[in-house]
Amino acid sequence: MSRERLHLRLPATSANLGPGFDALALALTLYLDIEAAPGKHFSIHASGRNADICGALENNLLLETYKSVLRQQHIAEIPLAIDVRNGIPLGMGCGSSAATRLAGVALASHFGQLGWDRGRILTEASKLEGHPDNTAACWLGGFTVACWRGDEVEAISLTPRSLWQAMVVMPRNPLATTLSRKVVPETFSRADVVANLQRVALLTAAFATGHAELMSTAVEDRLHQPYRAEVCPLLRKLLPLSGKDNVLSVTLSGAGPSVLLLLQPGIGVEAAKELVLKHVEGEPVEIIDCNLQLNPALCRVELGYV
Fold first, then answer.
1. Does residue 249 sit within a domain?
2. What is the 8-class DSSP label of residue 74?
3. Residue 294, pLDDT score
4. In a domain, 110, yes or no
5. What is the DSSP letter of 97?
6. Which residues fall within 8 angstroms of residue 191, CB to CB, at 6 or more apart?
7. Does a structural domain hold residue 303?
8. b or e along 16-35 (b: 16 or more beta carbons within 10 Å of the residue's beta carbon)?
9. Pairing, β 43-48 against β 80-86
10. Are residues 121 and 188 in the same domain?
11. Which of 250, 251, 258, 249 is closest to 231 using CA atoms?
12. Are residues 261 and 190 in the same domain?
């Protein structure tokens, strides 16, 4: 049974969420779909976003993750024939690497007959990713809070109470997470840390209760966004929209360079896009209208057979 074809469906994520640096994340309705079966040799058929990168057999994060996990477990590589349908932008702060690493670990567990449960897969993917926020939201769905406890990830998923809409604004060029992390200081003042702790608590409560009026305050951040704005110029241009004109909040999506806007339900998509375009001042952008993954059960990875 464990060597049969496997289908995985993993959502995009937006992590950090203002003050929730490396702790909070949100699942979005953009997906990485993967079907895999044993093959005579490794092959990938890719479609969707960045198909050339997703379909390459060299320097492919999915294959590298899959192979490395098997090597670590002293299991010979099982060649796979893989079909990838990618809807998650790469290098844009939408959790593409977290989804890919989770997929690689899940494929290794399945075809290598490791028998890992969902918690072990989440932990192993988070170790490779370096932090558990994106991986937790991708694996569990909804609004997630995640942390390390020793060498294991502990995470909880909340179903957002309100039907807030999401809009991701992407610049033309991607940004390496390593570069975005370099601009963040190693230490912070007590005042900045306390301010962020207060807002993380407020933001979690706002998602759990649906209090939209709290959002613009709850997403204020002093630990990473003020520094990342240097390499993510869209953030400075769009931050003035937070709390105005039916825009509940404006935050970096992950480490950037994309920006996530949460909107009041029912706001016209075209009106919101016009508002964004007015504030980006002619900078070429792509605007993706998507939804929050409201029900965690709807976006749990389908560890099913097809």
1. yes
2. T
3. 54
4. yes
5. H
6. none
7. no
8. bbbbbbbbbbbbbbbbbbbb
9. parallel
10. no
11. 258
12. yes
Do 169 and 58 fall within a single domain? no
Examine the domain organization and report whether 146 and 171 are in the same domain: no
Dihedral pair phi/psi, residue 194, rounded to 5°: -60, -45
Model confidence over 76-96: pLDDT tens digits?
999 999 999 999 999 999 999
For 275-280, the CB contacts below 8 A with 24+ separation are: 275/241, 275/245, 275/247, 276/167, 276/169, 276/238, 276/241, 279/237, 279/238, 279/240, 279/241, 280/169, 280/234, 280/237, 280/238
Please name the residue that has the structure tokens 């959502």: 11
Tokens 């709390």 belong to 243
- pTM above the 0.85 mark? yes
Considering the domain architecture, whether residues 61 and 144 belong to the same structural domain is answered as: yes
> What is the rounded distance in angstroms from the CA atom of residue 206 to the CA atom of residue 12?
22
Residue type at 89 in one-letter notation: P
Q: What share of the chain is helix, strand, coil (3-state, %, to 5)?
A: 35, 25, 40
Which CATH number covers residue 104?
A: 3.30.230.10
State the burial class of residue 305 (Cβ atoms within 10 Å of its Cβ: 0-12, 13-18, 19+): exposed
In this structure, are 151 and 180 located in the same domain?
Answer: no
Q: Which residues of the chain have pLDDT under 50?
A: 1, 295-306
Range of the domain at 189: 165-291
Judge if 254 and 113 occupy the same domain: no
Both 131 and 20 in one domain: the answer is yes
